[in-house]
Amino acid sequence: MAGDIEPSCAICGAPPYPTCPHEDERMELAIDQAQARWTAMQGIRDWVLNNARDQVMSTFQQLRLARYQLHLAYLQSLPCFTLYYRYNGQPPMMQPAQLHMLHSQITQANALFKQGVDEDWRRSCLQYPEVLDYYFNRVGYVLPDETDPSHGVAAKERPRVKAKKEGIDAGSAKDAKRKESRRSRGTTPPAPPRAPMPGAYR
Ligand SMILES: [Zn+2]
């Protein structure tokens, strides 16, 4: 029996070929769980979200302020608006028709202002995907150098990288992916003689 015999499925015990999906599924689950346990991820998310939210809010507030200033300037340009305002909407010396006219102009302007603010908010919120991308891209990260012997993967796991590279070299990308997941467990089978040396890749 060859030394590089493939193990059966660790989950259901089925023979190695044809490949069953269990190990890949469990691996996805395990990495999702490990990622959830990794506190840095939450820290990054919080930082990105807080900054994105601040930026969207600040854009909105600027738009709203500019719109409010225009709205106010328009109201102040209406005849008798100051008077109307000073008497809380019931100035004693205005004709009813004139008052009615002013009142409807103000009501219409207020409705337009509200509509404009809603539009400003909607447009600000639509910036989220772009703003989130911007802040995620500002997060720096360093992946450990795989060739550095001191990088902290336990010795028994180090062959995984090698197995993956052999898999990629051996066949098409799709096959390689399958082999990678089958092979990336525990012990390393002896490298086939045709395996290139590390460093021969790309
Ligand atoms: Zn299985």
Distance between the termini: 34 Å
> Strand tally, please?
0
Structural class of the helices, strands and pairings?
A: mainly alpha
Q: Give the DSSP E fraction (strand runs of 2 or more residues).
A: under 5%
Mean pLDDT over all positions: 81
Shape call: rod-shaped
Describe the largest sheet.
Answer: none
Q: Which regions are unreliable across 5 or more consecutive residues at pLDDT < 50?
A: 158-179, 185-202
Based on CA atoms alone, the radius of gyration comes out at: 33 Å
Bound molecules: zinc ion
Describe this structure in words.
By secondary structure, the chain is mostly helical. Among the domains are: 40-138; 145-186, no CATH class. Helix content is 62%, strand content 0%. It is built from seven helices and no strands. The chain has helices spanning 22-37, 39-77, 81-86, 96-125, 128-138, 159-170, 173-183. Helix 2 packs antiparallel against helix 4, helix 2 crosses helix 5 (128-138) and helix 6 (159-170) runs antiparallel to helix 7 (173-183). The chain is rod-shaped and about 110 Å long. The model is unreliable at 158-179 and 185-202 (pLDDT under 50). Zinc ion is lined by residues 9, 11-12, 14, 20, 22.
Write a brief structural summary.
By secondary structure, the chain is mostly helical. It has helices spanning 22-37, 39-77, 81-86, 96-125, 128-138, 159-170, 173-183.
How are the secondary structure elements laid out?
Elements (H helix, E strand, L loop, with lengths): L21 H16 L1 H39 L3 H6 L9 H30 L2 H11 L20 H12 L2 H11 L19
Helix pairs in contact: 2-4, 2-5, 6-7
Bound molecules: zinc ion.
The site of zinc ion has 6 residues, from loops.
